[in-house]
Amino acid sequence: MGTGASDYSAEQPHALQRGNGCATLFFYSTHYQDNFTLPRLRYGTSTDGVTFDALYSLGIDGNGPDIVRLHDGTYLLYYDVGTETTGFSIRVGRLTLRTEAADLSIAKSDAPDPVQTRTDLTYTLTIHNDGPDDAMDVTVVDTLPPQTIFRACAADGDGICGGINNNRTVEFGTIPVGALRTVSLRATVLCGVADGTVINNTASVTAATLDPDSLNDSAFVTTTASNPPPAITDAAVDKSVLWPPDHRLEDVVIDYDVTDNCPLPVDSCSLSVSSNEPEDGLGDGDLSPDWEVVDAGHVRLRAERSGLGSGRVYTIAITCTDLGGDASTATTAVLVPHSLGAK
Q1: Which residues in the chain come in under a pLDDT of 50?
Q2: Cα–Cα distance, 343 to 336 (Å, whole number)
Q3: Which helix (H) or strand (E) holds 181?
Q4: Does residue 215 sit in helix, strand or coil?
Q5: In the Cβ-directed half-sphere of 25, how many Cα atoms lie within 13 Å?
Q6: What gap in Å lies between CA 87 and CA 111, rounded to an integer?
Q7: pLDDT at position 300
Q8: What is the C-alpha to C-alpha distance for residues 202 and 166, in angstroms, rounded to an integer?
Q9: 102-226 and 231-342 share one CATH topology?
Q10: Who is most buried in 167, 178, 303, 307, counting CB within 10 A?
Q11: Residue 278 phi, psi dihedral angles, 5° rounding
């Protein structure tokens, strides 16, 4: 019996890609011989990967081969080689039944964290093929969070970015055994996201090649949004003192500057008024109301105070709220003194 036969690896069925662009399909059928049921390894060749030519038996006499299943799940294959001129010899090889497989895994990171609204958040995806075979037709899917809007995608290797709006995909033709591929997705965090919001994102990877471990085919990351409230500065009034205390409503203009990392919505700022004296206290007359808010830049204040007190202070609060619902407040004051010399 000859020696030196190669070991074989196949599946039921198993397509072996050949260097000339063809594919040979191996599969088993039942062979009955001398009251024994034996597996028969047959094969056919295809040029398009879909249709196969006439099927042939591989074996000693064309009706075999002789195959013995071993305890470890492999098969011992006996087959003949040679021609009538060179002579025939019988060789033996081990046949292992398996399909091509590629254990893909994906990892995900985010930067920066926390991320401020109206700035970019970048997700970096790393895909690794732990084998044992090349991974074919690999697809990475990442649906970006609703708190963001997609800006850009980049991928190394033969990766092709695709998708619509926040539904992003990246296609790789092949990821070889042991290879790493990197995908970068950049999105802008929307201004309407409230401060402290946790932004969740999951990415996944699949392939046409069988993946023996699906537990590492997705990755999850969280990012905290930062949306600082508006900054109110230089609050002032055009009349810091009301005199005389003649009980009339006086027009007062409030001036201030407000800035935010995002454009502020219409009517984002409002005014409110409070006083250190009751609206209808002793010794101030009987007129009310003592103040009116006209708009975000004007109020009307009554020029009166209690004759029993040390003077009246109107506190005007300016409150501005951004698109994320975060607010800040600044104050300024108007005085109605007890007497003119007490200003």
Answers
A1: 1-12, 14, 16-20, 30-39, 58-65, 73, 80, 87-90, 97, 343
A2: 8
A3: strand 180-189
A4: helix
A5: 17
A6: 70
A7: 98
A8: 12
A9: yes
A10: 303
A11: -65, 155
CA 34 to each of CA 69, 74, 76: distance values in angstroms, whole numbers, following the listed order: 18, 24, 20
pTM greater than 0.70 = no
* Structure token pair of residue 207: 């392939």
Q: What is the largest CA-CA distance in the chain?
A: 133
Backbone angles phi, psi at 290, to 5 degrees: -90, -10
CATH number assigned to the domain covering 102-226? 2.60.40.1530
**111 vs 264: CA distance, rounded Å:** 26
Rg (CA), the chain: 40
Nearest residue to 165 via CA among 142, 184, 181, 182: 142
pLDDT at 105: 98
- pLDDT recorded at residue 218: 98
Closest CA to 287 of 305, 271, 274, 275: 305
* CA distance readout (Å), 80 to 1, 30, 42, 88: 10, 20, 15, 7
Please state which CATH number belongs to domain 231-342. Answer: 2.60.40
Q: Residue 108 corresponds to which amino acid?
A: K
What is d(CA 148, CA 271) in angstroms, rounded to the nearest whole number?
32
Phi-psi region of 138 (alpha: psi -120 to 50; beta: other; left: phi over 0): beta
> Contact 203/170 with Cβ under 8 angstroms?
no
Query: DSSP letter string over 265-286?
Result: PTT-EEEEEEESS-TT-TTS-S
Q: How do the domains of the chain map onto residue ranges?
A: 8-97, 102-226, 231-342
